[in-house]
């Protein structure tokens, strides 16, 4: 027996129990509606996806070639179309997630309008986007199953039992579009209680993995901007605890916490760490401060000093009342941050870097793994990196180190199109292509994501259409650049009425009103000019 058959029989029995007043209820229609609404709450989604991530993490521990990936999305429709594309082309959503980027929430979802990534947007926008994404993913399930139900009815009407059985098998073994979301909570939007309250909302909306960073909440900066300020470890641990308590309160006992350190690019701290004895966690944090050794006689008004090894040390304090770290300590601080987070409840790491360089990432992760062998990284394949320039420079440096002739290249101008088809250009592109595979094998990267790719793709595709439509191409710009490609490439949105739920609604109307239903999908529906949408199920 399948779930579909079980539901049909259960509703048949329930219908019989309620007698003639339920005569209009069709048990199979109810079973179909249940199949189209597999997840009733966000907490069901959070548990289902947490189980997926935990399984994937264990599989990565056994084999680093089975890493996971995601793309950042800023709207439910974009996330939905991404997963539809994955199912259509790759046949399964296995190891593919969604990423919810705080950067894109700030830039695209705030009522204030576009904002920089500095935690100035409404924090409620974050769980709202989690909920929106899962609403659209669930609708993708409902739409695709609706097409299968329609095909099943057609096969039955035609008396084609073999086809009907094959379609029923697709229904019974249907793979959902619902996948894990790694959701960005920035620096927690306030004190630990505020972090806990927001984490609860995100989990209730369906988030199984929450990413939190060690910056000061009210000084938060994008990881690829200057002016980042970190907090002592004890402050950050309190927020990790707050997120864990939120998961446990809601019954998601295996929820995932991604601990992000911005220490590589953060040269400032808001305050000195509390320390009780030499070598404790606070003392280790303070040991990276940029200090001047002074005598008691040199103490000035309002000076703050640290005593270490019998010496008085005055941390360098800026006019902003922030303290600065010694230059060159970023990597060591990232290693300490990462080990400390994993020892205090985090499950995955995120080290924000200034460039995509496997050896640099591996250097830090190897140090972490000396202490915690199964440490795993979530890595930002950021659009803030100039990937072409970075990898061409890496290729140039490698060729030079190998004693190859690089006189044909100008290292400062390697972005030039003139280098696209050169040996150096091909080497760089191949390194970009294999970056995720190499990083997972050599640097402990479990999950690769691009934070804001769909921000860029939306701008690029809109530019492509606008420059032709408003110039001499007119409608041909849309037809040739969009609709003709949709038709020929099997993009389901060409039948946009179907994608928006019109056919689902028609079937529901028929369930509810029978032959009296006023349906939108009749002969006068212009969507009939297009072929049926391509099913993405296996």
From TrEMBL:
As cofactor, the record names: Mg(2+)
Instruction: Tell me the protein's name.
Output: Isocitrase
Q: What NCBIfam families does UniProt report for this protein, alphabetically?
A: PRK06498.1
Per the record, the GO terms for biological process are: carboxylic acid metabolic process
**Record key words, sorted:** Lyase, Magnesium, Metal-binding
Organism whose genome encodes this protein: Cryobacterium psychrotolerans
Is Magnesium among this UniProt entry's keywords? Answer: yes
What Pfam families does the database record attribute to this sequence?
ICL (PF00463)
Molecular function (GO) terms for this protein are: isocitrate lyase activity; metal ion binding
Quote the catalytic activity from the record.
D-threo-isocitrate = glyoxylate + succinate
Keyword Transmembrane helix: yes or no? no
Where substrate binds, per the record, is at 101-103, 223-224, 260, 380-384, 451
Q: Which domain of life is it from?
A: Bacteria
Family matches, as Gene3D superfamilies: Phosphoenolpyruvate-binding domains
Q: Which CDD domains match?
A: ICL_PEPM
Catalytic residues, chain numbering: 222
